[in-house]
Structures are given as C-alpha cells and as structure tokens.
Write a structure and sequence with these properties.
Blueprint (H helix, E strand, L loop, with lengths): L2 H4 L5 E9 L3 E7 L1 H13 L6 H19 L5 E10 L2 E9 L4 E7 L9 E9 L5 E7 L4 H13 L3 E7 L2 E7 L5 H6 L2 H5 L1 H4 L1 E12 L5 H14 L1 H5 L4 E5 L6 E5 H16 L1
Length: about 270
C-alpha cells in the first residue's frame, strides 16, 4: 500500500527534522484528530474509561506515533507498559507500513510488582520479532518512554508537549550533542526553529485504527473451534470477546464461525 493510499481525512501529519550541529532527530505532530478518533472509538463500543486513565492512552498514542515516525518505514512496534502507581496497563501499537496507531488502557487484573515494566516488541519486515524489557518507576508515560530510550534504544530520547495536543520527540543520533539534548526544556523546544538549523527529513501520516474486524476475530478463534467447539461455546449460541489491542467488543455466533471455518476449508482445497 502506497503512502498516498493510506492518507485520508482522519490522518495526521508527523514531520521529522535533523538538527544540524547537534546530530539529533526531531519528530513533531498535532494529535487532535487521533484523540477525537480515540474517543469516538470508545463511544462506538460503549467502552467506559475514566478520564485519568484515558490520559495514559493519549500519551501512549503520541509517544508511539512519534517513535514510529523516527523509525524505518518497514517496522511494526508494540508497547505494553505496566504502571504500579496508579495500577494499570497501557498497550500501544504502531504500524508504519499501514500508517496506523492504536492504544488502550486496562485497570483490571493488573499484576502488582515492585516496579513498573516497559515491554517493547518490534518487527521489521519479515525478520523475527525483537523484544526488550525495561523497568521504571513513576507514573508518567513519557518518563517511562524516555527510560526505554535510555536503556533499550541506548540513546537519549525526550518527549515534550509543544502546545495543547502538539507533541515533540527529540532523539539522539550518532555523535549527538547529548549535553544539549538532556538540557532541553519546553521553552528550548519551542525555540528550536530560531535557535537551531533544522532540515526537513520526512512527512509521514498516521491515523487511529486497529483493524480488528469480525473476520479477523473469527480467524483467531477458528483453530480453537476446530479442535474443541464445545469447549469454546459450551451451551451458548455466541461468545463475546474483546480485542486485546483496542478493547473493541465483538460478538461471534457459533453459526457464523461454522460458516467461516467451512469457507476456509474449501479455500484450502482449491
């Protein structure tokens, strides 16, 4: 799929710049549209998320989108972040080839531990997935992401709120002026255009989208259904499941899953 094909009226633009003389990369985007679509998604599926928990999802959407924009176009990235204070899990994923991002927050059945954990899974093209795990303390998503940069990416990465829903990532590149980057504050970021020489690298486009269609959910259940249909449905004519990526609720009837399995069987025989 070409970039032009994935751009629509719900996409946001993220621009990346190279800071000459500092050897740093800047990624910036206004997330207003993505936030609108996140809340519309909650409303469409009747999902109840408290405002303070929703702020974690919004931070995660900004952070992973900016991170994706700074990474190769073939990468797909997923973050699972466990906070201990408050006790919740945040999931965020970005798909560079598709130009999509998604996030959700879970406050039930969250593991209690001595510290928070930041899990990152990255797939580049057809390569095997790479996972890294970093521990952290605190309750700020951007602070947790910055610690991930420091210990997993092994380079500094700073997140800033430029204005309202406009966020910025400044990441170190080889031979970066680390002292300058670590000393940056919000005022310094707002003055980058005047104080530093910036060269535009790319413009990428992202939209809020999970892609968990009914068909995809049935494909997930199909192998289990073939092995143990009674164990899957019991005496019920349908099952309800939630997407682990976006929490969307799906209702799968036994009749529909049987038909889906039959279509798959016939296609395999062709």
């Amino acid at each position: 799929m070409s970039e032009q094909e994935i751009i629509n009226d719900r996409s946001i633009e993220v621009r990346t710049y190279f800071v000459r003389g500092r050897n740093a990369l800047v990624a910036r985007g206004d997330f207003s549209q993505i936030y609108v679509d996140y809340y519309l998604h909650l409303a469409d599926y009747g999902l109840q998320v408290k405002s303070d928990a929703a702020e974690y999802a919004k931070s995660a959407l900004a952070a992973i989108t900016l991170h994706c924009a700074s990474r190769p176009r073939t990468e797909r990235i997923a973050w699972t972040v466990n906070f201990q204070t408050p006790l919740l899990n945040v999931f965020a994923a970005g798909d560079n080839p598709a130009g999509t991002v998604v996030a959700s927050v879970y406050t039930e059945n969250v593991k209690v531990a001595e510290h928070g954990l930041f899990f990152s899974d990255t797939v580049r093209g057809v390569e095997a997935p790479r996972r890294s795990v970093v521990d952290f303390s605190g309750s700020n998503f951007f602070d947790a992401a910055e610690r991930y940069y420091q210990h997993s990416e092994q380079r500094p990465g700073r997140f800033f709120n430029f204005t309202d829903d406009d966020f910025v990532l400044v990441g170190g590149q080889p031979d970066c002026d680390v002292e300058w980057l670590l000393a940056l504050d919000e005022a310094g970021v707002r003055g980058l255009d005047e104080q530093e020489e910036l060269s535009l690298l790319e413009q990428r486009y992202y939209r809020f989208e999970c892609g968990c269609t009914q068909d995809r959910m049935m494909r997930v259940l199909e192998s289990v259904f073939k092995q143990d249909p009674e164990g899957l449905f019991g005496d019920e004519p349908l099952i309800r499941m939630s997407c682990p990526r976006c929490s969307a609720k799906h209702v799968i009837t036994r009749e529909a899953l049987e038909a889906h399995a039959e279509i798959t069987r016939r296609q395999s025989e062709v």
